[in-house]
Amino acid sequence: MQLRFNRTNSEIDKMIDDLMEKAGGVHHPEQTREMIIAALKAGQDTSYLADLKLLSNTMKEMRYTTTVFAPYRQKKKVTIFGSARTLPEEEMYKKCICFSRLLADKGYMIITGGGGGIMQAGNEGAGSECSFAANIKLPFEQSANPIMLKNPRLITYKYFFNRKVAFVKESDAIAVFPGGFGTLDEAMEVFTLVQTGKTSPKPLVLVDDEEGYWEHFFRFIKERLLVKGFISAEDFSIFTITKSCEEAVQVIDEFYTNYHSIRFVNGELIIRLTKVLTLEQIEMLENEFPELRLDGSRIELISARPEEADEPDLLELPRIAFRFHHQHYGLLIAFIRRLNTF
Predict the structure, then answer these.
(1) By the 8 A CB rule, do 285 and 339 touch?
(2) Which helix (H) or strand (E) is 12 found in, with range?
(3) What pLDDT was estimated at residue 142?
(4) pLDDT tens, 103-128?
């Protein structure tokens, strides 16, 4: 039988409905039903066992990720990337401890890769109670650090891609300390996701060492990527470079001064705020960021759209909305920083 996601599967649809009712406690049954249909279709379409194992393990890992993070959804979190080979006596290890401790004191939680080096420093500074660890199974180098070894917020992944989803999806900011291929891979992915709008806007802070690790990186981006037209000047709004852990914390904290979150509804960009903007402030934003809006669109003060009812805890927040030009996500970061000054 060829299965379909719409309700044209006759007795199979009834059996799935009965199964969910029998299991009990199923939230959003239509979404759950689609996942069951997808699993059945995969079983029909795929005879190669390794592919089915990958699909199954991916689902299991993502389900467990959601289970671990769900109780802390209202807490802001910062993901820290950096080298597993950084030693406790090194300057950057100590700077990371300072950084994560300052964040924990402000009520943030920390997400690291759960290994040694910068990852251990991040968990050490924040403390076990304010930490998550997204570890990865590797044949060498990576094992859970002593701070997170028996922590219920330790997740050990088989697949890098699931781990990367957790790092970005569950965080409100990203901090990257100097590191090797893995660190650069993680940083570049965040650059790409923010630049293309595949993750919500969030501060990306590159915490530098005294030798200027990230300054050299910045020079490469400016002299090679920008000059050749591979990126736009507005993409420099995506990240901040600093040698100060205090400034790094300030950049993250100030990003949420007035900005709360975004959502797209029927092609309209909705920006939720913590305080109402005046008409004068909206006019200033329109004049300063005309490229951000599609022709004919204005920035409007609005109330929650009906489609936002699935996030009831956010319905009372003030909002602005406009038709967004999707080529300008770097500029959107600058726009958010500007509205945070009001």
Answers:
(1) yes
(2) helix 11-23
(3) 63
(4) 999 999 999 999 999 999 999 999 99
Both tokens assigned to 81: 């990337």
Separation between Cα atoms, residue 259 and residue 256, nearest integer Å:
5
Q: Decide: 134 and 113 in contact? Cβ < 8 Å.
A: yes
Q: How far apart are the first and last CA of the chain?
A: 59
Residue length, the chain? 342
Is-above-0.90 flag for pTM?
yes
Number of H helices, E strands in the chain: 11, 11
Confidence band for 32, pLDDT divided at 50, 70 and 90: very high
User: How buried is 232 (Cβ within 10 angstroms: 0-12 exposed, 13-18 middle, 19+ buried)?
Assistant: middle
pLDDT value at residue 138 = 82
SS3 call for 238: helix
Instruction: In whole angstroms, give the CA distance from residue 169 to residue 175.
Output: 14
**Sequence-distant (≥ 6) Cβ neighbours of residue 5 within 8 angstroms:** 34, 37, 38
3-state secondary structure of 324: strand
Instruction: Work out the widest C-alpha separation in the chain, in whole angstroms.
Output: 67
φ, ψ of residue 119 to 5 degrees: the values are -65, -45
* Cβ(114)–Cβ(145) below 8 Å: yes
Backbone angles phi, psi at 271, to 5 degrees: -110, 115
Amino acid symbol at 94: K
Q: What is the set of domains in the chain, with CATH numbers?
A: 11-70 (no CATH), 72-255 (3.40.50.450), 259-339 (no CATH)
Question: In the prediction, which pLDDT does 139 show?
Answer: 76
